[in-house]
């Protein structure tokens, strides 16, 4: 649903305007939530025969999706889970995970994602480029329904005496009259109406986004199963 928020569209506009962020070098994305004890006993996300991807198929989906979004849905070359960041339950379900996604095409980019059922709530997204950076801490669900913001630093360097920054980070505020969840449903309805009443072909963009996200999620899971060896895409 966060992809339908006007804030996301504004970030995309600035991200792909080379004068603001430049070439993307590093992406950091987290989605965590501290779950109660009963969650680890009864929830479908910790059951091998119900949702075998665990935290990766739930919170990790947002982290991977954010990286792909920032890279305009180009797949990474190599995916590696980090051994120290992986926790499983007795059934082998992943409950916490950290992974590295490497891009070697054109301009090298490193992305780190972290998802966990043990840590306090976080929804961080940080994108750093050759000319600036973009940061927000509520990318999945905004702090407020009617207004959302992100921080933009571009261009920014230290002062001559290195006691501070030469510019202040800009807080970019984007108002939103309609909840992002409703915008998502409206988009689905618009696509369905176009097919039913106007004879439009199905929009392949959303299925392609889902497919690529799942490819990377599956690659992380494969890396975990291979004792965190790299998986090449």
TrEMBL record:
Domain GFO/IDH/MocA-like oxidoreductase: 18-134
Domain of life: Eukaryota
UniProt feature coiled coil, ranges: none
Pfam families assigned: GFO_IDH_MocA_C3
Stored PANTHER family: NAD(P)-BINDING ROSSMANN-FOLD SUPERFAMILY PROTEIN (PTHR46368:SF5), PTHR46368
Recorded family membership: Belongs to the Gfo/Idh/MocA family.
Name used for this protein in its record: GFO/IDH/MocA-like oxidoreductase domain-containing protein
Originating organism: Populus trichocarpa x Populus deltoides
Origin organism lineage: Eukaryota, Viridiplantae, Streptophyta, Embryophyta, Tracheophyta
């Amino acid at each position: 649903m966060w992809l339908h928020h006007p804030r996301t569209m504004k970030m995309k506009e600035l991200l792909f305007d080379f004068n603001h962020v430049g070439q993307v070098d590093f992406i950091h994305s987290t989605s965590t939530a501290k779950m109660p004890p009963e969650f680890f006993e009864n929830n479908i996300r910790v059951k091998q025969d119900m949702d075998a991807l665990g935290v990766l198929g739930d919170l990790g989906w947002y982290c991977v999706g954010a990286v792909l979004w920032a890279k305009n849905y180009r797949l990474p070359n190599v995916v590696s889970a980090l051994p120290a960041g992986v926790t499983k339950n007795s059934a082998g379900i992943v409950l916490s995970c950290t992974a590295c996604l490497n891009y070697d095409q054109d301009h090298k980019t490193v992305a780190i994602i972290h998802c966990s059922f043990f840590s306090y709530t976080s929804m961080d997204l940080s994108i750093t480029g050759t000319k600036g950076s973009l940061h927000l801490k509520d990318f999945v669900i905004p702090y407020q329904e009617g207004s959302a913001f992100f921080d933009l630093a571009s261009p920014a360097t230290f002062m001559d005496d290195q006691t501070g920054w030469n510019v202040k980070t800009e807080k970019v505020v984007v108002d939103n009259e309609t909840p992002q969840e409703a915008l998502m449903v409206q988009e689905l309805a618009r696509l369905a109406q176009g097919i039913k009443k106007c004879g439009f072909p199905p929009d392949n963009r959303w299925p392609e986004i889902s497919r690529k996200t799942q490819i990377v999620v599956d690659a992380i899971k494969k890396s975990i199963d291979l004792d965190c060896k790299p998986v090449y895409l």
